[in-house]
Structure formats: structure tokens, C-alpha cells
Amino acid sequence: MLLHLQPGLLSQLQELIYGQCSLRFSPSRMINLETQIRERIEARGLSSLEDYFSLLQKDLHEFDTLIEGITTKETHFFRLPGQFEALRKEVLPWIEDRLSQEAQRRVAEGIRERTRNIPLRIWSAGCATGEEPYSIAMAVMEGLRYSRAWKVEILASDISQEAVKTASLGSYEAGDLAQIPAGYQEKYMRTVNDRLVMADGIKDKVSFRVFNLRKLNGEREKLYDFVKIDGNREYINLYGRFDAIFCRNVMIYFDIPAQQRLVDGLYACLRPGGYLFTGDAELLYIYEHNFKSIDYERTIFYRKPE
């Protein structure tokens, strides 16, 4: 017998989820939500939605488990390949020239610093099981003209602790790799027990963290709370930190006000001249923003003015 979910309590549960994660549910996604709720009620040995709602309010682990079940983690390597082509051929050369000029200027002004290991920072915001940030890392290594001059730092975050733990392993079945460009597997992966594992030269460029994008805003001095794989916390000032951000297929889960807050927050996190890549159904024309739209061979992405 199908467990009855009282509409009033179901609405309260949706508001609880929205308050914590800014997630809204279309009619089609409501089916998935109700299915997940019934599964979790059965898994916890409860008898009603009322009992489960009470549990969610006091059990953070159960809340995280529900969120992991209702958020789609479908992804693959080099999803939207035109964006990685744009990153490699258009964005990286521009960033490389700009940051090199900045480093040379600082040396000329008498500021002592190493000319090697210039930081190049990219954020994969909504990294799921890791295919996106590893694709970014491979594209960066292919695109940089002088890779040894750079300290590539890719922050990869997701709201799902389970997805982040899986991503940090960097281990994939051969069938997951169909979209990887020819030659990349040989250069950037190795075989371990019939699985393909990201090489250390790629893995060490990516740091995986648990982070809720609902927290993001444009505050200049705010330290954001990220959770490491080992459960320890790290506090990072994101303001003006990144040269590029990939935030793809995340906004589709938010309502319009939450989407606008996210766009504002991502804008603040970019350095002047930084780039934003969104999903193909997440064009920014419906929001207020100061990004410049770039059309590179039918691939749309955005640049923050200098």
C-alpha cells in the first residue's frame, strides 16, 4: 500500500528544503521528491510523513541523505565540449597573458615573489562525481603554453558529501570515458584493477569540498565554510578569487530569486576579467548582471569586465 503524504506537511517539507538549499521542485521533479521521501521513511523504519518531517528537523545526516537522493548527479567527462574548447583556445591564452603581465609588473615594482608557480584559480561549483573538474584540469594542462610557470588550483565543490567522496577517488569505469578527447587517457590516466584512475599530476590540482551554494553572496570580507573529505572545515574568502568558474546545471534547481542571488555571488567571486561558464539551459539574459556575453563558435559564456 502506497504511503499517503499529507499535502500540508509535504509543503512544509519543501519549505524546509528551500530554506536550507534554495531548491524548488517543478511538477516533474515532485515525483522524484515524493519517491525519495517514501524510500527514506521505509529505510528509517518510520510510519508517517509527520515522523519523517520531525526527524529531518533534528537529524542533519538524514537531511543530507535526502538531498543527495533528489539532486541529479548525471554528468560525464567534457560535457558541453565547446566550452572546454573555448577554455583551451580562447580563455586560457587571455588569462595567461594577463597574469603574466601582473607578475612582471609586481617584480618591476620591487615586490619580491616567485615568477614560477603563479596561481591560476578555477572553481567547479557543483562538481558531482568529479568528471567536470578533472576535465577542466586536463583542458588547462593542454591549453597553457608554459604549464610549469603556473600553480593550477581547481576548487571542486558539491552539496552532496557522497558525490564529493566519490569524486576525490578519481576512479572510473572505462565506459565512463567515451567523451574524453583522443590521447588524453594515455597522458592523464592510468589503469588500476580494471579501472582508469586520474594521474597524480591531475588529481593534485583539484581540491574537493562540500559546500552549499545557497550561502554564496557578494560580501567582500566573508569567509565561507567548506568541509573537507576528512570532515575538517576550511574557511575561504571567495571574493575576487577565481580566474574562471564553471557553474553548470545548478541554477535549474533554484527559483528566480535564488538564481539571481547565485549570479550575483558568482560575479563577486571572479577576478576582474574572469570568466563564467553556465549550463546550456542557463543563459543569463533573464537576470540583472554586468557580465559581458561571449559567443565563441556557437558557445556562449561570460566575462566580468576589468
Overall description:
The protein folds into 2 domains: 7-70, Chemotaxis Receptor Methyltransferase Cher, domain 1 (Orthogonal Bundle); 81-303, Rossmann fold. The chain has helices spanning 7-21, 27-43, 49-58, 60-70, 81-108, 131-143, 161-169, 184-188, 200-203, 256-269; strands at 118-125, 150-158, 171-172, 189-192, 195-198, 206-210, 223-227, 233-237, 242-247, 270-278, 292-296, 299-303. The protein has 306 residues and is of the alpha/beta class. The model has no long low-confidence stretch (mean pLDDT 88). It has a 7-stranded mixed sheet. A 3-stranded antiparallel sheet has the order 3-5-4. Strands 7-8 form a two-stranded antiparallel ribbon. The chain has 10 helices and 12 strands. The longest helix has 28 residues, at 81-108. α1 packs parallel to α3 (49-58) and α5 (81-108) crosses α6. The radius of gyration is 21 Å and the shape is globular.
